[in-house]
Amino acid sequence: MAVHKGSEGAIKIGSNTVAEVKSYALDESADTIETTSLGDAARTHLASLTSFSGSVDCMWDETDTNGQVALAVGSTVTLEWYPEGSASGATYYSGSIIVTGKNITASFDGLVEASIAVQGTGVITTATV
Fold first, then answer.
1. Global pTM?
2. Rounded to whole angstroms, what are the CA distances from 62 to 13, 18, 21, 55, 71?
3. CATH of domain 6-31+49-128
């Protein structure tokens, strides 16, 4: 059984690694269509359309022009999630996303942080480095 530490991961836009990432999420889902008919003893369903969304949480870095800055609200980019890092043989997920929101927060005794929300458009693919 393979297990991985969260610190091994990376988020990339093309070949550019997004700087200062603290955490991320990738959510995949599938709609279902009910196929139950009269006389059935239990509900039945078929898989339908799939979708994905996610978020990237980082320590805000306004100089990360090919990463955080490229994830501007309304922009469309290809985002890649590398849960086990980007070394040869590692599995990663890739898909076109639209940035739907960005939340920048700070407190007097902490760092300035950014949380970026993304919505996938099209399919997400799984590949190996």
1. 0.86
2. 16, 11, 13, 18, 11
3. 2.30.110.20
